[in-house]
Amino acid sequence: MPLGNATRDGLTLVFAHGLGSHKEQWETMISSLFKNADGLVKEAWSLEWQSHGESASRNALALENRDAVSIEDYADLIRHFVESPFLKGKTIVAVGHSASTTAWTLAVFQLTIPICPIVAFVFFEPVQLIPPIVESDIRIKKGIMNVQAAQSRKTTFQNMQQAEKYFRKRLPWSLWDPRIIETFLEHGLMTLPNSTEVTTKCKASQEVWSYEPYVHLLAGHLYGKLCTTFPVHAIFGERPEMYSKKTRDVYSDGKEGRVLASVAFIPRTGHLLVQERPDEAAQHIARVLSKVSLNKVDSIRAHL
Q1: Domain 11-134+212-301 falls under CATH 3.20.20.140
Q2: Is the pLDDT of residue 5 over 60?
Q3: Given 40, 138, 143, 304, which residue has the most CB atoms within 10 angstroms?
Q4: Quick count: other Cβ atoms within 10 Å of Cβ 138?
Q5: 177 CB contacts (<8 Å, ≥6 apart)?
Q6: Distance CA 2, CA 217 (A)
Q7: Which of 43, 278, 233 has the alpha carbon at shortest distance from 122?
């Protein structure tokens, strides 16, 4: 992948993806970002959920012996990576989309390193479940709908040509940038052994587990602390597909510390905005990076 204008002293970006996706989801955006961020970025890492993408294939035997890899498990992976020698001495901007915004929220408050290297968060379509939960809460209903949709989704095809035809013609994939579709076909699908049949690398049973509300509610309880500790930048799609506009407003209503460093919207997109408009998403990240200071690590750690 062409990385463009990396800089020796710039920021390190760490990306985490949403449910049903894979680490390569970010490739198009990262490529665009390196070309247009004016030397602000030193390097970028994309962390894959253990039950998604190529990780699902590599972990196939281990996954047979457990119900699912939870968001807490993904958060643990993220935490271990941030604490690892790979990022020692680096200044990090954390980027998440959808369910990984919950994973990031859980991960950051479990860090044990002396100085937190994260200086900002960029959340695309955050899904932390901000309390309280009310009777017949529409957010809970949305989670149930997502489970039903994942369970009923077609996941196996006679061959790759049939799979490609299917995904290019049906929502939400038909709205995606063509480069993202190509990436999904290459990295999100696999051919079954001794067959021409093709299936998704991430099984529906792995995906639906993380639509359960309790872990998102836990992250919701931590969300205000996150915002008072770090600059948190939220970017939403113009179409309120996951949460209503009223629910989105809660993320920046000022109560219990819920104050965002910035809020932005990408026109003509919905919840899967990073798949639909990766170049515009990259532009928004570049805007955030231009505001991030490389000297905020110690002051952020003081709040933890």
Answers
A1: no
A2: no
A3: 40
A4: 12
A5: 28, 275, 276, 277, 278, 279
A6: 39
A7: 233
> Distance between alpha carbon 257 and the CA centroid of its chain, in Å?
23
CA distances (Å), origin 239, targets 99, 262, 304: 18, 19, 35
Sheet holding 189-191, edge to edge: 156-157, 198-200, 189-191
Supply φ then ψ for residue 11, to 5 degrees.
-85, 155
Domain ranges of the chain: 11-134+212-301
Parallel, antiparallel or unpaired: strands 92-97 and 156-157? unpaired
- pTM assigned to the model: 0.92
Largest CA distance in the chain: 57
Q: What is the pLDDT of residues 119-130, one digit of tens each?
A: 999 999 999 999
> How far, in Å, CA of 128 to CA of 105, rounded?
8
| d(C-alpha 126, C-alpha 257), whole Å | 16
Number of other residues whose CB lies within 10 A of the CB of residue 32:
20
Distance, CA of 146 to CA of 210 (rounded, Å): 10
Residue type, 133: I
The residue among 70 and 303 whose pLDDT is bigger is 70
**pLDDT, the chain, mean:** 90
Query: Which of the pair, 227 or 61, is modelled with greater confidence?
Result: 227
Q: Is the confidence at residue 221, as pLDDT, over 60? A: yes
Please give the pLDDT value at position 167.
95
- Is the CB of residue 68 less than 8 Å from the CB of residue 50? no
